[in-house]
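[User] Once you have settled down, look closely at the record that follows, and write a paragraph about the fold.
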Amino acid sequence: MTPDQTTPQTLSLAPLRRLKGRGAVSQLAHRFAVDVREVFDDGWNGEGHAAPAPPLTEVRFEDAQSALNANDSPDIAFKHTVNPYRGCEHGCIYCFARPTHSYLGWSPGLDFETRLVAKRNIATVLARELAAPRYQPSMLNLGAATDAYQPIERALHLTRGVIEVLARAAHPFAVVTKSSGVERDLDLIAPMAAQRLAAVYVTITTLDARLARLLEPRAAAPQRRLRTIRTLADAGVPVGVSVAPQIPFINDDMEQVLTAAHAAGAQSAFYTVLRLPWEVAPLFQQWLAAHYPDRAERVMARVREMRGGKNYDSRWGQRMHGEGVWADVLHQRFAKTCARLGLNRERSGIDLSRFNPAALRAQRDLFELD
């Protein structure tokens, strides 16, 4: 057989590589991509080639047209969210927001945690929307899609600008974060908390520092997050703990996390199970293959058991906690531990009566006169 007559051969894909400081192990093509490229093994095993440099973080700026994002899901307790950033450098491999990068034409994989967008005018736009005559106040969540206190917030202060607007208007809000950076803004958050206008939830997925580094490579270490809970509680801020997401056969220390968080001062808690919408499913499976190949199939089998045989079930009422035996056992473990510790026994109410949009209108009028 001559070289021209050789039969086609299947290319062997190169093994997935762990990237230090990053959650995703690939630049997975987004679901709207026309061309899909994959790295394959050419048989040289990298001989003569230096390992590729880890991808650096790139920040772009945009002028937001709106700040408030409406929520109509009964699974979530707040009506509006504000996200100062697109993408998140924390790199949590399980992040349900990864597919939003597809709308930018970027990969939900490495792009999501390395190509970030900062909404530089977010505070100004928010002030305008809160001051609108038809706006009705309700609990607002800060950073629902991506962490409002991810590393670039240290330099950009966009989240702080948003909280300054909320403080002027006496508008209630809650933050969910994995960062100790929230402590920086205690000078704003603590006085608002004293008026029943602010609460903070710190996510602690596991107390295992090694596992946390794999799951959430650039988030604060678990013990540092516990210190943040203590700092917030000591400042009089209502603080809760999120033990989310629960991943079968990966993080199995829910009771220990809840106990440690309660000892640090947490008053409330909530959890969700692993959610794998759109591109998150293949990204998470790549992560499993790279870090836990021995149990990858077992993990996904249990995930599908909770989701009616699929990778994900987006139905309201099901998507947060799943269904089936494992989901029921998880709920019982959570409920019994919370009852034993006294978590969720008392809920801090919010005070909507303090909302003062006139303060924002006066500020806006001053700017317009200038």
